[in-house]
Amino acid sequence: MSTAPVSGEPLIRVVDLRKSYVLGDVTVHALRGVDMEIGAGSFVAIVGASGSGKSTFMNILGLLDRPSGGRYFLEGQDVSGFDRDRRAILRNRKIGFVFQNFNLLPRTSALENVELPLLYDGHARSGEDRHRKALGLLQAVGLGERAHHTPNQLSGGQQQRVAIARALVNDPEILLADEPTGNLDSRTSVEIMEILQRLNREKRITIILITHEHDIAEYGQRVVAFRDGRVVSDRAVESRRDAAAELAALPALQEEAAV
Amino acid sequence: MRIQNTLRIALRAIQRNKIRSALTMLGVIIGVASVIAMIALGSGARASIDQQIQAQGTNVIFVSSGSFGRPGGGAVRGGAGSVTTLTLDDAKAISEVRGVTRMSPMVRGRAQVIAGDQNWNTSVEGGNEDYLAIRNWALASGANFTPRDVLVAEKVCLLGDTVVRNLFPDQDPVGQVIRVKNLPFRVLGVLVPKGQGQFGQDQDDLIIAPYTTIQKKLLGITYIQQVYLSADNSDDVERVAVDITRLMRQRHRITNPEEDDFTVRTVEEMAATRVQMANTMTGLLMSVASVSLLVGGIGIMNIMLVSVTERTREIGLRMAVGARTRDILRQFLAEAVSLSVVGGVAGIALGVLVSQGMTWKLGWPTMITSTSILVAFAFAGAVGVFFGYYPARKAANLDPIEALRYE
Ligand SMILES: Nc1ncnc2c1ncn2[C@@H]1O[C@H](COP(=O)(O)OP(=O)(O)O)[C@@H](O)[C@H]1O
Ligand SMILES: [Mg+2]
After folding, report:
1. CA atoms within 13 A on the CB side of B10
2. CA distance A173 to A95
3. How many other C-beta atoms lie within 10 A of the C-beta of residue B166?
4. Given this model, what pLDDT does residue A145 score?
5. Is A92–B319 a contact, with Cβ atoms under 8 angstroms apart?
6. A22 lines ligand 1 (CB under 6 A)
7. Which of A182, A199, B235, B284 has its CB surrounded by the most CB atoms within 10 Å?
8. Percent of chain B with pLDDT over 70
9. What is the mean pLDDT of chain B?
10. Distance between A93 CA and the closest CA of chain B, angstroms
11. Helix axes B267-310 and B325-357, enclosed angle (nearest 10)
12. What is the mean pLDDT of residues B214-221?
């Protein structure tokens, strides 16, 4: 059931996407008709006030949720009508999630947290293979020596890096990050952005980053703003921030300050 | 997801909450242990009945006077033994039936027996010289009485082990004289001990004497109470019993079987009745045991529901990274079944211990069979599946987003 890319189709295309929640007598319209295309390999930041529908949008793109109306084409295939299990398979193969609250399994080592998606991909592989793959990713996010630490033994930034390693373990095409820096201090936020920019640049992973901080959005190539369930602006970033360069500069600044 | 991974995750979840898991298993442990112990008691009872039949000989037939009340029987008859219509002539006629090898008339009473300054109340059984052979009973010392002793109603007797221990604590009784209802009886021999009967009665608490002596000297009767027979072939027992019944009806001029003034029973029939009683008892106890297993299952369901609620976010996360409905279903089912199966294994061990304890401390015969262990194990597994299914289903049907957002 692989989704063969249709030539000329963007990676993601949504048409008149709607989502409403019925709460008793009240109907909440979280998305009121969103049209958008996201090309493979792009880095899109989605901004907007709290309650503007960003997470709802991301959950639909991530196939965690289904739209109430409109169409969602993933690699040209209409996935809006897929059932639970078909969506689960697509999530496993094509999509990685990074959440604001990290969502790591408690009392479970970083290594095993990263391995989690491998348990559900239907491949029969040995525990050793899984460990090797997960360890490689932990090393890539700079946590090779922390592989056997449990989440409560890791800082927030380290936990988020474990979560990123987990999102990458099945080689997804898309990485969805919902306020990944929301619980982190500014320096750690830059470190996380450095990883996302590197993944986007080196592995051509499509990144959709949700944030309500405009300066964080500037790490993307394109910023889409939501208000009340609608897209109100969609623009390319003129002077894109470079997290790696900023990090290189940071310690120097601190040293100067210390003198 | 592969089965090893499913099991690993389940076992880890159980280990994580050791005390809670142990308490949950306790219900299953107790349930399975009692099922095992009850089956052991039942099998033990049946085995000991079988053993007694073997000891007694499968080819023994009893003819008793009086009839056991039959349901729907109109006429009120005396219970077996209370009717005086069974005669020595009947016994002799019965012994002529084809297939009968040995026959002994039989009377029974109770008497005070005295030896020196010891005295004891016991059962006194009267038979002829073949009585011991029919009952498959050997002598530990001394000799059986002779046909002549029976003919002339000699005051001689054989002592059961219990009587020996009470009357002759430190003396060889053979050749001694005891007084039965103040009549002197010479002790000819001592019987080998038989031990407890099926209902715990002491089979060795008796003396045996020629029936003629008991009739004339002790009871003052001329009728007999029972006839003991052995058939030459245990396959032939049923046919012989039927022939005897026909003969007795002829002799007593009975046309309506409901008016029988005698009862013909084979050892096998009697054993069947006792096996049936044992089965009824076991069945009753088993249903009590099953209830505790059921309660154990409800305990598992309860804990699994708690576990699903506690781990809602974990479930959401697993779904987000690709777990399908059946993956989550299997994970929680595996956890419930692991709880019940581990509890089941512990319960089997406990049940075996309890059964052996009952044999050692209470002297009840018990028997552990591999079938009972397999049945208990399968039951435990089934309890896990049955009571684990609903919580597992609940977990598997969670909405990924709501599960991820759950606080
Ligand atoms: N499960 C839900 N039930 C009811 N209303 C919801 C639910 N999820 C989101 N909403 C509503 O939809 C709107 C958009 O929410 P959300 O997508 O979470 O916004 P954002 O992520 O931009 O803060 C909000 O008004 C929110 O209250
Ligand atoms: Mg949100």
Report:
1. 27
2. 6
3. 18
4. 95
5. no
6. no
7. A199
8. 94
9. 89
10. 8
11. 140
12. 92
* Strand-pair partners of A74: A12, A77
Nearest to B327 among A59, A120, A166 (CB): A120
pLDDT on residue A8 = 78
- Amino acid sitting at position B403: A
Contact between residue B105 and residue B127 where contact means Cβ atoms under 8 Å apart: yes
What SS3 class is residue A21?
strand
User: How much is the ipTM here?
Assistant: 0.93
Nearest one of B154, B221, B214 to B188, comparing CA atoms: B154
User: What does the alpha-carbon distance between residue A230 and residue A172 come to, in Å, rounded to a whole number?
Assistant: 28
Closest by CA to A178, choosing from A143, A134, A129, A216, is A216
Return the pLDDT at B304: 94
| Furthest C-alpha separation in chain B | 102
Separation CA B279–CA B259 (nearest Å): 31
What is the number of the ligand 1 atom nearest to the C-alpha of A49? 22
The per-residue pLDDT for B77 is 46
**A242 in any annotated domain:** yes
Q: How far is the CA of A225 from the centre of ligand 1 (A)?
A: 16
Least confident of A50-59, B224-233, B317-326: B224-233
- Is residue A1 in some structural domain? no
Q: How far is the CA of B133 from the centre of ligand 2 (A)?
A: 96
SS3 B117: coil
**In angstroms, what is the C-alpha Rg of chain A?**
19
Distance A51 CA to ligand 1 centre (A): 6
- The count of structural domains within chain A is 1
Residue A149 lies in a domain: no
Mean pLDDT of A66-76: 96
CB B64 within 8 A of CB B210: no
Q: Residues of chain B with pLDDT > 90: what percent?
A: 62
Question: Which pLDDT belongs to residue A235?
Answer: 96
* Mean pLDDT for all residues in chain A: 93
Q: Are A117 and B314 in contact (CB < 8 Å)?
A: no
Are the beta carbons of A205 and A175 closer than 8 angstroms?
A: yes
| Residue of A107, A206, A113 lying closest to A162 (CA atoms) | A113
Decide if pLDDT at A257 tops 90.
no
A2 part of a folded domain: no
Dihedral class, residue B303 (left if φ above 0, else alpha if ψ from -120 to 50, else beta): alpha
Give the tokens for residue A138.
Answer: 């932990």
Domain boundaries, chain B: 3-52+273-405, 86-251
Q: Is the pLDDT of residue A255 over 60?
A: no
